[in-house]
Amino acid sequence: MGLLSLGTPLDWHQSKQHNEHVRENGIIQLINIFSQHLARDNDRFLWGDEVEYMLVDVDSQHKTARLNIEQDAILDDFNDPDKPGPYGKALDNNIVFHPEYGRFMIEATPRRPFDGTSLEDYIYVEQNMRSRRTVAQLELPEHVVPLTLTAFPRMGCGIFTQPPAKPIGPASQSLFLPDEVINRHVRFPTLTANIRKRRGAKVAINLPIYPDVDTKLMDALVVAAARRDLFASDAEPYLGAAKPGHVYMDLMGFGMGLLCLQVTMQPRNIAEATVLYDVLAPLTPVLLALTAAAPVFKGYLVDQDVRWNVISGAVDDRTFVERNAEPFRGYDLFGGLAVLDELKDHVNSLGGGRGVNGDHEINDNGDTSMVTLDGKPIQKIPKSRYDSIDAYLNEHGVPYNDIRLPINTKVEAQLSEPAVRSMFPEPLRRHFAHLFIRDPLVLFSERIDQDNSTENDHFENIQLTNWQTLRFKPPAPCPTPGTDLASTPGWRVEVRPMEIQLTDFENAAYLVFVVLLSRALLKYNVNFYIPISHIDENMATAHAVDAALDHKFWFRAPAKWGINHGEFRGYDLTWFDRFINDGNDLPDQDNGVYLNGHPSNGPAADHDDSEVKLSCDELVNGSKHSAGLLRLVVKYIATDLVPEKYKNSAHHCGSDAIAKELETLQAYLLLVSLRAAGKIPTTARYLRDYVMLHPKYQRDSVVSDEINYDLVQRAIAITNGKRNKDFFGDVLGGFLDRRGL
Ligand code: ADP
Ligand code: MG
Ligand code: MG
Ligand code: MG
After folding, report:
1. Of 409, 419, 448, 452, which has the highest C-beta tally within 10 A?
2. What is the pTM of this model?
């Protein structure tokens, strides 16, 4: 979760006076980091994941499943050396537990990152994940279970916490979520309130309700809340914030209370980090679709499968004017921004901001007479702070940066000054100038003045509240002279779109797939560039029900990937069987690989288009004209990951231990392959079917307390490996049954 300074957090109206100070000093800190780390090279390829858990309180007597909001102290225990039991267990198991937004959430990561060149570490990650669950469970009562379910189905429906709490909190003003779901650390309620105050209204997320035969038009909880008169904002759903036919959600917690799976990787240097960032960008929507796991929100089946737009909306602090939206009657076009009274008067004379976006007073480039009191141009901003990326980072990507990129021109000027210009190539300059259009959301009074040569809190303040599908992570400043920089984290890329899966097996599988694919894409120098606007279109597609199965995604035509597809022939998943089990095939004398299994013929020659629409199946599993992503990974494993000494003269595996590890890798890749081919359901499809086939389901899209309880029980059974064949199909389920947990 990043920085958790202790101290006094400032309310938005105090904190906004320091916005420019934070940005200016944040950029100086960034420049110092670049000066210190730009030249580092040949960093080891390290990687590490983050898994988030919700603590679900299961009462089998009353048949309820609720979010537990009173066990969060276990986090302190894990991180407090004076509590030797829990602290020692986390330490011994190479785990770190982190706080998250929700009081019912915990996050866990490996303490030491994994080594991307070591086959063993790709196997160890799952074991490390299992320890995280076991160690957490040891500190929890038996009936409180750390569950990796993307969205708690009944979050926001009446009583859904243990202990019960009422939605009457001043930080959130939510009609549905009590403030008690928010982490106790002052940062989090402040963050929540400041988003609302900056925006000038509560956040509003509307998800289409899945239309079943008896589905009602209105979200019943919105109708029920109509009587409440506690905060002025209570009227918002009826002023236009809530849409008919949609589930309406009004708080940061609805998004930040969702769980995701992230992975951070460290390529060899900054240049390679920008290459990796770019090549992964077009894959982000596909990763979202393949991991889809969220078909139920606030007690309703919804007409989409993933969490992304919920979080995006949940932290959307843009004012009406920035969103290019009409303010609600009586609301301020400029939200919580400080602007000159004359400007407000001018807008009022134009009708209070209604329609003001239509005149050319406020243009798209920030090049406008409208500025905040501290001189920052007010501009239209197309996306939330939590959204898909807006631009590529490597210069080769520049021609594909086709969407409007609002930037902070002052920051761009700061990064263009002669003394620093050469460190920041144009795409990087624009990247940071873009991130720095945002205001800091939480500032601690004790941390306003910092030593820019040794600290980076101001930079990270903006950086860590830009939650995009990918994050380019610069190193931290290294204050001790003489430190070997290679021993400190370097230039990293974080992959953030994936939804969390129920089992450690699946989470490990997707991570291993992403990391090995990254290794392969770098090694084979693959070109995946397509216009950013098409990635955005794919992001929308990835939200659809069964997107992985029924929808196609823009992708660079395989003929233009810059590889010879023929060189990947033979590297389908059966490569593992041939390598592990001696003597069932013949070596191909030409290139030393085994050609049994599906052929993947030479390069595509069927069209000249530079872009095509591909299904997940075609992209992942390949086709007549394309190696597909999996063959890139398998070839990389075969040629680079299996240690030379274990390849005997006939290119077979010379070690039982390695053979076992390879079987596990094969199973990971098989999971991705089967999900991409639609041969086994995504988690979202499985859960959707579970609800729709539940005997108590009324065909009204409502997921009742009773269904919720059964669904949670089913999720726990899957997590514990008790439904392998049902959930994973016969082949993979059979493998998992044989292997055990
Ligand atoms: P954040 O929440 O800011 O993304 P976390 O600390 O929660 O950060 O997670 C970062 C992940 O990166 C962890 O899994 C950690 O093990 C891993 N990691 C740490 N150092 C490196 C490194 N040098 N290279 C790659 N990954 C790293
Ligand atoms: Mg997290
Ligand atoms: Mg984290
Ligand atoms: Mg992260």
Report:
1. 452
2. 0.96
